[in-house]
Amino acid sequence: MIVTVTLNPSVDISYEVEKFQQGGIFRARESQQTAGGKGLNVTRVLKQLDVPVIATGFLGGKNGEFIQEQLEREKVASSFIEIKETTRSCIAILEKETQTEVLGPGPWVKEEEIKGFLEGYSELVKKAELICISGSLPRGVPQDFYRDLVKIAGDSHCRVLLDSSGAPLAEGVKGTPYLLKPNLEEMESLLGKGTGKKENLEEGLRDLIKTGIQVVCLSMGGDGALIMGREEFFRVEVPAIKAENPVGSGDAMLAGWAYGLLKGYNLEKASVFATACGISNALEKKTGRINPHQLEEISGQVKIVPLNRGRKRK
Length: 314
Known about the structure:
Elements (H helix, E strand, L loop, with lengths): L1 E5 L3 E7 L13 E7 L1 H11 L4 E8 H13 L3 E2 L2 E3 L4 E8 L2 E6 L7 H17 L2 E5 L10 H11 L3 E5 L2 H8 L5 E2 L3 H8 L6 H13 L4 E5 L5 E4 L4 E5 L11 H14 L4 H16 L12 H5 L3 E4 L8
Parallel strand pairs: 1-4, 1-9, 2-7, 4-5, 4-6, 9-10, 10-11, 11-12
Antiparallel strand pairs: 2-3, 7-8, 12-13, 13-14, 14-15
Helix pairs in contact: 1-8, 4-5, 8-9
């Protein structure tokens, strides 16, 4: 079983408009309202891959009820902690190939609610094979909370895949997750320096591996990804596509990683499969959706380019 952690979920509201500009009034061509949050996107993709998965985190108010109802309709198992304040909303405005987002900050979570989550999480970890931790923290939750979650999982010999940003990511690294999936901006923030040159990227990836992390997947959107493991370093090249909706592709990629690790894939095969999941999500209109029947075809278009093969680590 895989456990997904979404501490700051949201009701995601998207509007598709024409010629969007600041200060205007627009009538949306289409709109949709979904249960959102990076971890829930991971959950949906794992569900589509027919993997046993259970989602946990915090839910509160009418928005929380909406999310719970959607998960039940999708037959997604969940074990969320109910909080007093209302789960946030996030708005996305879509116009051709551009997207403008307004992200709610999230509710204030009380100390006793955090304690309740930790008790439930500790029990879930005992049954889990993998933990996927994704996204931001709601207000009231300590910035080093992901570090604690990673350590709790480690104490039960359970591997953690971490995808976050800012201080929660930096603190989470200190817990030594199994896999880390930053993008370029998150990588720069994590390292405290620019990563414009290949040498800087490689050095930064090696620094993370030296902390005890087993795999770092540096996702670069249309430019593919750089993957570093304990003994391997390679680039993943992706085919050019016409994306319908790239939102959630990183989450689909994390789900693909979890699937690959669960199935015992080697690093290259897991990288290809994870990348194919991300691409499949981008080809779908709805966020957190893939077409499992296309994954083999997409995987055939993903290329692995070895980098510094055989180079000894210092």
